[in-house]
Amino acid sequence: MRDPLSNTIKDIKPSGIRKFFDIVSEMKDAISLGVGEPDFDTPWHIREEGIFSLERGKTFYTSNTGLKELRVEISKYLERKIDVTYDPLSEIIVTVGGSEAIDLAFRAMLDPGDEVLVPQPSYVSYVPCVELTHGVPVTICLKEENQFRLTKEELLEHITDKTKMLVLPFPNNPTGAIMEKKDLEDIAKICVEKDIYVLSDEIYSELTYGTDHVSIASFPGMRDRTIVINGFSKGFAMTGWRLGYAAGPKVIMEQMLKIHQYAIMCAPTMSQYAAVDALQHGEKDVQVMRESYNQRRRFLMNAFKEMGLECFEPFGAFYVFPNIKKYGLSSEEFATRLLQEEKVAVVPGNAFGDCGEGFLRISYAYSLDNLKIALDRVKSFIERLDAEK
After folding, report:
1. Dist. CA 384–CA 389, nearest whole Å
2. Neighbours of 146 (CB within 10 A)
3. Which site among 64, 98, 205, 317 is 20 to 30 Å from 123 CA-CA?
4. Do residues 251 and 118 make contact, with C-beta atoms less than 8 angstroms apart?
């Protein structure tokens, strides 16, 4: 009997994030600090709009590109947030989460052998999505001493005549790193000069602390060579609604839409009606959540300092990325022992690429009460490791 499986898919590794949480679900009194999901309920007025859409019988397919009124609101949102204008009729596609938008962009833009620069540590789906198109992912290892920001020197070092795209995953999962205007200016100039397209994953754009998010699409020459990916899961606490979007030049959106039509049809209708309300009336809710995350971020940084756990200060998303190299354990070993001995689950840094080895991803999308209990356990574990030296 012939092998039913594709060699491409067999060579792709499963996500390294979920393993620890399968164990946690069976472990009494365990605390998870690993899942990248807001602990806030979706604001009531957004849920109410979703419920109201059901009551009105709005349960049919929408346009493949999404509800017109939602695309109009997305266009307004992007204009006021990143100062870039998109035609809601031809340059915006509503997708099933930001993840679908990422996949669509790669499939629409890459031919076999095209190279895609992927800064790491970063979200787990970029590399396999490139590989599924038979493109070639080229990893750029970001450095802690640079606050895990991409530098122009690192970018230039990895560009070849086969480079077609650059992934810009900022604000970053798992590090919490951001790219400010001064960081992006040089990157934008290089992309224009070298004729490189950019996939800018801005799903955490609402969650920056002390500085506003800046999109590379807003720089001269970049609007028509950038696909902006965003959505509602992180900023608006709408993970289960499965709603994202892509915005970019019409010539690329037309091809992404063809794939979306054949594979998905349209994003969930109820979610789209709720998202209209989120964009129209959700700014205050986002601000409240952002302030709460910032409080937790400061709490974690102070706790790490007190226990002697090294960690650069992140200014985006809701993750910290402490350095555990001095303890002589791999990321996987550290996370495994922490779970077994103290019942605290975190994600090994190498789940986000080999560049994450020696680090852990810890999410602060949890209540302060849970964070305090978990950090007391982490402190006990670290004290035990120090005693073992």
Report:
1. 9
2. 14
3. 64
4. no
**Paired tokens of 85:** 């204008």
Report the alpha-carbon distance of residue 134 to residue 329 in Å, rounded: 35
Q: Region of 166 please: left (phi>0), alpha (psi -120 to 50) or beta.
A: beta
Nearest CA to 344 among 319, 326, 370? Answer: 370
CA 93/CA 256 separation, integer angstroms: 8
Q: Determine the Cα–Cα distance for residues 311 and 360; give it in Å rounded to an integer.
A: 10
Closest residue by Cα to residue 36 from 200, 214, 231: 231
Q: Would you tell me how many other CB atoms lie within 10 Å of the CB of residue 210?
A: 9
Distance CA 169, CA 203 (A): 9
Q: H or E segment at 149?
A: none
Q: What backbone phi and psi angles, to 5 degrees, belong to 29?
A: 65, 15
Say whether 264 sits in a helix, a strand or coil. coil
Alpha carbon of residue 252 to chain centroid: 22
Whole-angstrom Cα distance, residue 166 to residue 105?
12
Cα separation of 293 and 171, whole Å? 14
Burial 319-357 (b: 16+ CB within 10 A, else e): bbbbbbeebebbbbebbbebbeebbbbbbbbbbbbebbb
Report, in this order, helix, strand and coil percent for the chain, each rounded to 5: 50, 15, 40
Q: How far apart are CA 386 and CA 339, in angstroms?
A: 18
Instruction: Show the DSSP H helices in 233-367 as ranges.
Output: 250-263, 269-281, 283-307, 331-342
Q: How far apart are CA 179 and CA 182, in angstroms?
A: 8
